[in-house]
Amino acid sequence: MELPDLTPYLGQITFGGLAGYAVGYALKKVGRLLAIALGLLFVALQLLAQAGYVEVDWTRIQRDVEPLLQQPGLKSLWERLVATLTYNLPFGASFVGGLVLGLRAG
Q1: What is the reported pTM?
Q2: pLDDT over 90 (residue 16)
Q3: CB 21 within 8 A of CB 105
Q4: Distance, C-alpha 98 to centroid of its chain
Q5: So which residues are the signal peptide here (predicted)?
């Protein structure tokens, strides 16, 4: 049995993997910046609340944010992100593999 010639697809696979890695790396860096920004916002709010400038209703914030952080919501978000990033790409499988590696490396 003769194996098919995959030479024409090597460029697509390579580009897909590299593009996925770059996107994953960038997403992780942006995620870290977002986490830092949210942390600094929390500290600023706490300082303002302690000084008496603002009053924060943390119970209401928790009630509004909690549904967004449930597992099915996060899974759906990940699936939508991957579907958007791989839309109309012939090298989608290698892109997703590169994306996962980029997220781990970032």
Answers
A1: 0.67
A2: no
A3: yes
A4: 13
A5: none
Mapped onto helix, strand or coil, the DSSP state of residue 55 is coil
Mean pLDDT within 72-77: 73
| 3 state DSSP class of 1 | coil
CA pair distance 14, 90, nearest whole angstrom: 12
Site of tokens 């995959």: 6
d(CA 21, CA 104): 9
pLDDT at 6 over 70: no
Predicted local distance difference test score (pLDDT) of residue 54: 92
Contact 20, 95 (CB under 8 A): yes
